[in-house]
């Protein structure tokens, strides 16, 4: 059943190329009642320019349960032309409105084993997690190009559309996002001392890397240091939370199906700290 739902976007992952869905972004947020929802797949760049949503922006869209995705929060857009962007929630008063919307009904998990148990029972696939301690920020080199097979599939699909699109539209559709040459992760400890390493798939960290690379004249080593400075040195001075989401292929059966799909880093609430 297709229902118009209003979602505050809190998660946008860095784009990947899928054999089935072309280029897509995993998008998630909270509904007006405070519950989590995932919109997957979301073909981000197929939206009209004015409908390329931002984080912490309310989005209204006709959504229906994604029957091919077993994760309980997963929905899909029934008609992408009906996606509407609404107001953005700002950061005034120590992010008070964002805090209210996110924490009003959502449990903040501090024990990773408990969270994984719930995911393996298919009770959830999205959560807010608060590590007891952040240990390190890890950067590893990875493949620098998308797989040839996936690119060829995209090219074939763009040619199939050529009867219905202008050359300019095809070129825009086929402009593939750059693949990140590095994988970034947090190492942290939970409330019982269990140490874990989770990869960060947030849109922000990908765009931060490219912006840093441009600022430092393509010096990759310096760009990576700048990313670490932001995500480790600066964010650890804030009230840092992690948005965790399970990977579809590992949901319900992996030892740890979660990755970091977003970070929430408001300043410490000084007024609350006084009491």
Describe what you observe in this structure.
The chain has 275 residues and is an alpha+beta fold. It folds into 3 domains: 3-88, OB fold (Dihydrolipoamide Acetyltransferase, E2P) (Beta Barrel), CATH 2.40.50.730; 107-142 and 179-273, OB fold (Dihydrolipoamide Acetyltransferase, E2P) (Beta Barrel); 146-178. 27% of the residues lie in helices and 32% in strands. It contains 7 helices and 14 strands. Strands 1-3-4-6-5 form a 5-stranded mixed β-barrel. The protein has a 4-stranded mixed sheet with strand order 8-9-13-14. Strands 10-11-12 form a 3-stranded antiparallel sheet, covered by helices on one side. β11 (182-189) and β12 (195-199) form a beta hairpin. α5 packs across α6.
What would the average pLDDT be, to the nearest integer? Answer: 84
- Write the CATH architecture name of the largest domain: Beta Barrel
Distance between the termini: 47 Å
- Please trace the helix and strand order, writing H or E for each element: EEEEEEEHEHEEHHEEHHEEH
Number of strands: 14
Radius of gyration: 19 Å
Number of helices: 7
Low-confidence stretches: 160-165
Please name the CATH topology of the largest domain. Answer: OB fold (Dihydrolipoamide Acetyltransferase, E2P)
Strand content: 25-35%
Assign the CATH class of the largest domain: Mainly Beta
Based on secondary structure, the structural category is alpha+beta
- Widest β-sheet, arrangement of strands: 1-3-4-6-5
Basic shape: globular
Main pleated-sheet profile: 5 strands, mixed, barrel
